[in-house]
Write a structure and sequence with these properties.
Blueprint: E1 2-5, H1 10-20, E2 39-42, H2 47-68, H3 76-87, E3 93-97, H4 99-104, H5 108-114, E4 122-129, E5 138-142, E6 144-148, H6 157-160, H7 168-182, E7 188-198, E8 210-212, E9 218-220, H8 228-243, E10 247-252, H9 256-262, E11 267-271, H10 274-287, E12 291-293, H11 298-305, E13 312-313, H12 322-331, E14 338-343, H13 369-380
Parallel strand pairs: 1-2, 5-7, 5-10, 6-7, 9-13, 10-14, 11-12
Antiparallel strand pairs: 3-4, 4-7, 8-9, 11-14
Helix pairs in contact: 1-2, 2-7, 5-8, 7-13, 8-12, 10-13, 11-12
């Protein structure tokens, strides 16, 4: 047991302690397991803050565990089972949609990515109802590529092992759904997670292919390694049609350019609403897991719509600005309404530096789970303007 002093910040103390003591040792021999200590608050009256901190850290640790599990074990179907096991006891509804359902909904771009693998695709729908029954939901969309080889445009071998974590966006959303249900936030949230592998085979999509997304838009594939934005295009279109959300938030590892820009300092944010930016920036400041805003200029839209034989290209005209071009691509599938895009390639996969002592080098981070939880808390429980 470890007693932790809160120093007036019991919630933050709980988060840091629980994140630091986490171990990923599921595949080590039992006799080699290191013990994970029990944590207790020492000489501090804020037990409620301590419990909230433990809950948020446990959520992030769930995301870390999902991302760190090897891709031969964490397949799309295994991820779906893990989501059921984590969320159903909390009261979150989980619908596991199979390939026939995906075909019936005409999620053809998603299917084009999935067909290169022998693992069947799955579409997860998660639902939490904490608000009024007639209240329009917030919809979360997560990229769920459980392994990304790059498809026919293979990634470099040295980098490939990290891409078991290309479903970090999906993992963050599962963890967030568990946390908001445990906190019983007064809010309605739906989450959509397309799950598949991006693999090379005779069935794989090819550079030059034209795909047709759920909304009817045509996509020219220039780089099969940019598959995440393709599956999100279908998920965003389906979300708009099926759930009529008041806000859409997608979370994805979309561009290594984000890592070049920010390192592990922050997640990249794109949004069409200044108020939402202020709220998520505030959430990042509170949790210490920060975000940084990037532009959604028409300049980048032109770079992904310049081609004459399709509506949009999945790479766009370079050089440079790859995260902004990825966001511009997604924006084409969000024609109206409030939207936030979180590109977490910079901080959501393996930890590559010692910037955060509570995270472990070469292990998945689970970021920015706590920031997303805090953001949703601020939306669900806004401060009373009469209280100063």
């Amino acid at each position: 047991m470890i007693s932790v002093e809160g120093f007036g910040q019991a919630e933050a103390a709980a988060e840091g302690a629980a994140l630091a003591t986490w171990r990923f040792q599921d595949f080590k021999a039992k006799e080699d397991h290191k013990s994970v200590p029990h944590l207790e608050l020492f000489m501090d009256a804020d037990s409620a803050g301590w419990q909230r901190g433990l809950l948020k850290a446990d959520a992030q640790n769930l995301a870390r565990n999902l991302c760190d599990t090897p891709a031969n074990i964490m397949t799309p179907s295994a991820f779906a089972r893990a989501a059921v096991e984590a969320l159903c006891p909390c009261g979150v509804g989980v619908e596991v949609r199979d390939k026939d359902w995906i075909e019936s909904k005409k999620l053809n771009a998603f299917l084009a990515v999935a067909k290169g693998s022998s693992e069947p695709p799955i579409f997860l729908e998660l639902g939490y109802c904490g608000g009024q029954q007639d209240e329009r939901p917030i919809v979360l969309v997560g990229k769920g590529i459980t392994y990304d080889s790059g498809g026919l445009c293979l990634k470099k071998c040295k980098q490939m092992s990290e891409f078991k974590g290309d479903m970090a966006g999906a993992a963050v959303i599962v963890a967030t759904m568990k946390a908001i249900a445990s906190l019983t936030l007064p809010i309605n949230v739906q989450a959509l997670i397309p799950l598949c592998e991006n693999m090379p085979s005779g069935m794989s999509m090819k550079p030059g292919d034209i795909l047709f997304a759920h909304n009817g838009a045509s996509i020219q594939v220039e780089d099969t390694s940019n598959e995440g934005r393709i599956i999100l295009a279908d998920a965003l279109g389906y979300a708009r049609e099926a759930h009529k959300p008041r806000l859409m938030i997608d979370v994805a590892t979309l561009s290594m350019g984000m890592r070049s820009a920010l390192g592990g300092a922050a997640s990249g944010v794109y949004t069409n609403n200044h108020d939402l930016w202020r709220e998520i920036n505030k959430a990042g400041s509170i949790t210490g897991d920060r975000v940084w805003r990037f532009p959604l200029w028409h300049h980048f839209t032109k770079k992904v719509t310049y081609i004459t034989n399709a509506d949009v290209t999945n790479t766009g005209m370079g050089p440079g600005g790859s995260p902004c071009r990825a966001a511009a691509f997604l924006k084409e599938f969000v024609p109206c309404g409030d939207w936030v895009h979180l590109d977490i390639t910079s901080c959501g996969m393996e930890c590559h530096s010692a910037d955060y002592p509570y995270l472990k080098m070469r292990r998945m981070t689970g970021r920015p789970t706590r920031t997303l939880i805090q953001f949703l808390y601020q939306i669900a429980c806004p401060p009373d303007p009469k209280v100063k």
